[in-house]
């Protein structure tokens, strides 16, 4: 979709911009403001959204309820300017990655999340959701530039029922983008592995923990360990990182990560904390469920009791490491062991 | 200058096709193993992530690269040659055989379990039901990536009930996500009675019932939404929640019916 507007659409866009600027509005608001039919309102919104000149957000409670926000004329001009640099025959045919290569240094960004993780670990294939860290002030430019027939951009939750090839989630970076990114051989920017591991440790889901382990295993010789340690210290993630490295060594029965690195991290850790790792809500809920059952042991059969004990032990497999790092580790051993095994470590392939 | 531009285009094309190349190799190997097994008279049935794909709609979620089969035949040496031709190793294990194939920096793991599927996270096992070979379906498995979207292979896939029990048996959230996706996308294909009979045959009926009840509890707590988001990056919408709840209840109801009928007899 070219980044230009037919006259009728331009007229409606201008009227809406004059009235709402960057503010949020609803379907009803537009019908009222423009004094047009329902069908025409749908068409106007559709044409604006397709071009990336309007950001649509669906309600988390009822996905049919939508709110809209216009992209500013300056941001639209910026995107239109970029499109004018693309050869005519390529317009609309570029993949998302090609667009990122094309934008190069014109707007700062770094691909993060599971897509970036996959670049480093080649373990779990990522979902087709591209998470991109950007400068907050560039949000409109990104929406206007990246939106096309195959791509939709989201700022909050991705709620979409139509089948789209690529979903993009824009994340505001709290650090200067240039400091956290590196250029891939293919020519697009992704988050440096040291920062990405921290990002994954911060998310604390089962998947993000698995991805952090896989990145460490696949890149242990390339990671800038001193930077990683310093980052972990500054973010308060030393316990998590140290524990994870120890767990990797424990499951692989060999010092895959050098003892000095772990020792260095350990020196930052004093006493105990009330931290639970990983604070994955699904793990926590399961653990609570098992504890509830334990409090009604009298109602259980011997077999049920045996199963319950085994299930509880699954979350307490790293007692010694929990002690060492002063955290309550609830990461099941099978989770770490599976990555280690899948990546060929315990088979002696690495 | 021109050379630099051409080089960049080539590198870009290479990067783009890497994931789809793995997928393409995996799918073609899958088809070849299925065909050769048939030639050697070995009944191989596809289970695991690829079987889940056969029963679910193509979505933007994370797909598996590993290939899992199950069989009743103990002597699988006939397949050694096929494994070697396809460049997988051939290693006998306590549960069957396994192999691994490297493609650039990635690898595809291949497992064939004999008679039963063991789960690491629970130490439970699912015994191959006697009727599995009569209920098995030849199904199409399509590539999930845009670049290879026209590729599809036809393989013998385990019946949906067995795939579902195997996914509900484990403690892994990835498997729970797969089970939810199967219930949402192919529930009409599930023979509920067979599902419970086979669960019982492996002494898993209570475990499965607990798991389904736990799904209902997690739905209520909003954790299914988190699980869905973790694997698809997308929101689990209210309509899906309602459908899932109804279908899980239907599964549980039917189990009660079986129990009541037995009690009456």
Short description:
The complex is a heterodimer of chains A (350) and B (265). Chain A has 350 residues and is of the alpha/beta class.
Task: Give the CATH architecture of the largest domain in chain A.
Answer: Orthogonal Bundle
What is the number of E strands of chain B? 9
Spatial strand arrangement across the major sheet of chain A: 4-5-7-6
Q: Secondary-structure element order of chain B, as H and E?
A: HEHEHEEEEEHEEHHHHHH
**Spatial strand arrangement across the major sheet of chain B:** 1-2-5-4-3
**CA-based gyration radius of chain A:** 25 Å
Task: Count every beta strand of chain A, where a strand is a DSSP E run of 2 or more residues.
Answer: 11
State the low-pLDDT regions of chain A, or none.
346-350
Q: Which fold name fills CATH's third level, the topology of the largest domain in chain A?
A: Arc Repressor Mutant, subunit A
CATH topology of chain B: Beta Polymerase, domain 2
Helix run count of chain B: 10
Query: How helix-rich are the residues of chain A, as a percent range?
Result: 40-55%
Range of strand content of chain B:
15-25%
**Quaternary class:** heterodimer
Major beta-sheet overview of chain A: 4 strands, mixed
What structural class do the secondary elements of chain B suggest?
Answer: alpha+beta
What's the topology here?
The complex is a heterodimer of chains A (350) and B (265).
Chain A: H1 7-20, E1 24-25, H2 27-34, H3 38-51, E2 54-58, E3 66-70, H4 73-85, H5 96-103, E4 109-112, H6 113-121, E5 129-134, H7 139-146, E6 151-154, E7 166-172, H8 177-180, E8 181-183, E9 189-191, H9 193-203, H10 206-219, H11 225-235, H12 238-252, H13 259-266, E10 276-277, H14 281-294, H15 302-314, H16 319-325, E11 328-329, H17 333-342
Parallel strand pairs in A: 5-7, 6-7, 10-11
Antiparallel strand pairs in A: 1-3, 2-3, 4-5, 8-9
Helix pairs in contact in A: 4-7, 6-9, 6-10, 9-10, 9-11, 10-17, 12-16, 12-17, 14-15
Chain B: H1 2-39, E1 45-47, H2 48-55, E2 67-71, H3 80-85, E3 91-92, E4 96-103, E5 106-114, E6 116-118, E7 125-127, H4 132-135, E8 137-142, E9 152-157, H5 160-169, H6 173-186, H7 192-201, H8 205-221, H9 223-232, H10 238-264
Parallel strand pairs in B: 2-5
Antiparallel strand pairs in B: 1-2, 3-4, 4-5, 6-7, 8-9
Helix pairs in contact in B: 2-5, 5-6, 5-7, 8-10
């Amino acid at each position: 979709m070219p980044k230009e507007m037919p006259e009728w659409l331009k007229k409606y866009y201008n009227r809406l911009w004059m009235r709402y600027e960057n503010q949020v509005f609803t379907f009803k608001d537009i019908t009222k403001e423009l004094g047009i039919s329902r069908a025409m309102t749908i068409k106007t919104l559709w044409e604006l959204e397709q071009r990336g000149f309007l950001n649509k957000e669906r309600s988390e409670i009822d996905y049919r309820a939508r709110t809209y926000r216009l992209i500013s004329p300056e941001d639209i001009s910026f995107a239109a300017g970029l499109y004018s640099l693309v050869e005519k025959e390529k317009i609309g045919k570029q993949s998302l990655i090609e667009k990122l290569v094309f934008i190069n240094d014109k707007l700062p960004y770094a691909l993060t999340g599971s897509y970036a993780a996959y670049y480093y670990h080649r373990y779990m294939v990522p979902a087709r959701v591209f998470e991109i860290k950007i400068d907050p002030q560039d949000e409109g430019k990104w929406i206007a530039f990246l939106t096309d027939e195959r791509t939709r951009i989201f700022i909050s939750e991705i709620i979409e029922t139509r089948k789209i090839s690529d979903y993009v989630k824009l994340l505001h970076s709290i650090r200067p983008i240039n400091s956290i990114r590196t250029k891939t051989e293919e020519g697009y920017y992704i988050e440096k592995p040291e920062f990405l591991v921290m990002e994954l440790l911060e998310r604390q889901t089962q998947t993000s923990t698995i991805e952090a382990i896989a990145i460490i295993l696949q890149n242990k010789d390339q990671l800038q360990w001193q930077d990683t340690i310093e980052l972990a210290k500054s973010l308060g993630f030393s316990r998590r990182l140290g524990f994870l490295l120890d767990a990797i060594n424990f499951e692989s029965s060999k010092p895959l990560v050098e003892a000095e690195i772990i020792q260095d991290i350990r020196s930052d850790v004093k006493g105990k904390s009330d931290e639970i790792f990983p604070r994955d809500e699904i793990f926590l809920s399961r653990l609570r469920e098992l504890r509830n059952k334990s409090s009604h042991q009298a109602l259980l059969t011997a077999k049920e009791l045996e199963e319950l004990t085994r299930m509880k032990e699954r979350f307490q497999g790293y007692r010694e490491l929990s002690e060492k790092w002063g955290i309550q580790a609830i990461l099941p051993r099978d989770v770490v062991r599976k990555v280690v095994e899948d990546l060929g470590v315990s088979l002696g392939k690495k | 200058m021109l050379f630099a531009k051409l080089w960049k285009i080539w590198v870009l094309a290479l990067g783009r096709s890497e994931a789809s190349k793995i997928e393409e190799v995996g799918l073609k190997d899958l088809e070849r193993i299925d065909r050769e097994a048939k030639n050697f008279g070995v009944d191989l049935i596809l289970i695991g992530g690829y079987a889940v794909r056969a029963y679910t709609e193509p979505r933007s979620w994370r797909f598996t690269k590993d290939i899992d089969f199950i069989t009743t035949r103990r002597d699988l040496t006939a397949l050694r040659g096929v494994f070697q031709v396809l460049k997988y190793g051939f290693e006998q294990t306590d549960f069957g055989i396994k192999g691994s194939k490297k493609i650039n920096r990635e690898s595809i793991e291949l497992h064939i379990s004999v008679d039963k599927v063991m789960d690491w996270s629970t130490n439970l096992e699912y015994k191959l039901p006697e009727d599995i070979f009569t209920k098995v379906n030849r199904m199409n498995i399509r590539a999930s990536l845009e670049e290879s979207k026209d590729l599809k292979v036809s393989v013998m896939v385990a019946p949906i009930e067995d795939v579902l029990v195997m996914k509900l048996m484990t403690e892994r959230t990835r498997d729970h996500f797969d089970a939810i996706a199967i219930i949402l996308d192919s529930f009409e294909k599930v023979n509920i009675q067979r599902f419970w009979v086979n669960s019982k045959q492996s002494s898993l009926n209570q475990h499965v019932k607990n798991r389904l009840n736990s799904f209902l509890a997690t739905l209520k707590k909003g954790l299914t939404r988190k699980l869905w988001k973790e694997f698809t990056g997308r929101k689990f919408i209210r309509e899906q929640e309602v459908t899932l709840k109804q279908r899980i209840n239907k599964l549980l109801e039917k189990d009660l019916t079986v129990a009541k009928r037995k009690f009456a007899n």
